[in-house]
Amino acid sequence: MRENKKAEVLRLLRESTEYISGQELCEKFSVSRTAVWKIMKQLKEEGYEIEAVQNRGYRLLTVPDILSKSEIESRLDGGWIGKQVYFAEEVDSTNTWGKRLAEEGAPHGTLVVADEQTQGRGRRGRSWQSPKGTNISMTLILRPDLEPARASMLTIVMGLSVAQGLKELLKLPVQIKWPNDAVLNGHKLCGILTEMSAQIDYINYVVVGTGINVNLPEVPEELKDIATSLLIETGHRVNRAEVIGAVLRAFARNYESFLAAGDLTGLLNAYNEILANRDRQVRVLDPKEPYEGVALGINARGELLVKKADGSISEVYAGEVSVRGLYSYI
């Protein structure tokens, strides 16, 4: 049985509250009884607890936190995101892998996921740790019909999508620290790195790498004032594949709005409503001349509007400076 049919069987098992007979699976997927038996055997070997009862069929008893190609595919909606899914137990960086696949012609919407990254990267060359079995490390390959100058806004689109996906799935008060950090209780959950290959007026491809701290039991001592994980904040483990599905559903919706407008116009209200910096005193770490002011929200280009003490409003571009709270990370 092909891998995509395995994902369909898994989705059917997870969504059903009743037993599903082997005959029903055979007819639905046009496969033999032997093929159904083999896929059930594979799923059990991967860690799924499946009950098989004679004359009744199969039933999924538990939904473990497993990352695999089939599990990820079974969480997607069958749209343009994830038409091709690549999964590895370990890679150096999903962005590096994604760029290699994009150079080889991987289509728009290709999704790359790894259980562990050994050389994950953040902005400005910072490292992003992702130990085995704990976090989400994924990269989405995009081929948008956009001017290259607009591609940086995709980072904000993904940041908003992470926050919305987590809120919708887990009912948590996730916010955004400008420009794209998903935060919970004042601590960072997510890092995003967008990289592009382009000509002067044409984008070859964009890779949007997203790392989410999910089941990390603790963060390094030097990051405890800044970072956190869903496990730390909720006290229980969270299914990573389910989070991937929720985030990418939000991204598909937000991406269409972004493409239609060519900027963030259609996403402004949603973004500013959950902007943790909004109406707060911030310090703009401009290398030329740092200054303080009140963050008002973003404009359609994703720039942060900061009102200075003299009443003037500056437009802060994320690629040039960082913004911090006066006394904390936010």
Automatic annotation (TrEMBL):
Annotated ranges, domain BPL/LPL catalytic: 79-259
GO CC annotations on file: cytoplasm
Keyword entries, A-Z: ATP-binding, Biotin, DNA-binding, Ligase, Nucleotide-binding, Repressor, Transcription, Transcription regulation
Family annotation (Gene3D superfamilies): 2.30.30.100, Bira Bifunctional Protein, Domain 2, Winged helix-like DNA-binding domain superfamily/Winged helix DNA-binding domain
Catalytic EC class: ligase
DNA-binding region, residue range(s): 22-41
Pfam family, one: BPL_LplA_LipB
Entry's Gene Ontology molecular function annotations: ATP binding; biotin--[biotin carboxyl-carrier protein] ligase activity; DNA binding; transferase activity
Cross-referenced InterPro entries: aa-tRNA-synth_II/BPL/LPL, Bifunct_BirA, Biotin_CoA_COase_ligase, BPL_C, BPL_LPL_catalytic, HTH_11, Transcriptional_repressor_C, WH-like_DNA-bd_sf
Region span, Disordered: 108-130
GO biological process, one term: protein lipoylation
SUPFAM superfamilies noted in UniProt: C-terminal domain of transcriptional repressors, Class II aaRS and biotin synthetases, Winged helix' DNA-binding domain
Residue sites binding biotin per the record: S93, T94, N95, Q117, R121, G122, R123, K188
Source organism superkingdom: Bacteria
Record-listed E.C. numbers: 6.3.4.15
Catalytically driven reaction(s): biotin + L-lysyl-[protein] + ATP = N(6)-biotinyl-L-lysyl-[protein] + AMP + diphosphate + H(+)
Family statement: Belongs to the biotin--protein ligase family.
HAMAP family: Bifunct_BirA
Protein task: Acts both as a biotin--[acetyl-CoA-carboxylase] ligase and a repressor.
Name used for this protein in its record: Bifunctional ligase/repressor BirA
Organism: Candidatus Fusicatenibacter intestinigallinarum
